[in-house]
Amino acid sequence: MDTVSGTVTLKWVDATFFVGSDSRGSTISIGYDRQREPNWNAVKPSDLLLMSAASCSMYDVVTILEKQREPLDSLEVQCTGEQKTEPPYPFVSIHLKYFVKGAVDEQKLARAITLSEDKYCSVLATLRPAVEITSSYEYVDP
What we know:
The protein has 3 helices and 6 strands, in the order E-E-E-H-E-E-H-H-E. With 142 residues, the chain is an alpha+beta fold. It has 2 domains: 1-43; 45-139, K homology (KH) domain (GMP Synthetase, Chain A, domain 3).
């Protein structure tokens, strides 16, 4: 099996504040400190995992619907994760809810979501053996 690799870089700035760079040089502030809230202005590391799951699937769904020439006006994905309360706080379930605007055929939407979640999304494929993954969708008014 052929593989492709990617490298990200994380730089420690101060306390539990880091700056991450992806393989293309885009950056994001990362960190979490209970004592510093609400002044902490960075993404919580465990939320990055949820964002990765949501963005990976959203990319697939948008691409599939575009190829089918479906009239997608907008798409939002809300990704909710449930974690255990003891260290290392593993995720036990993740739910993706897709909010769709546009006259997208419901069967095509459901199929695009299924294809993303079961075949194309590398993040969900990696998580699936250890985490229960569920989804739903809702059409929203324009």
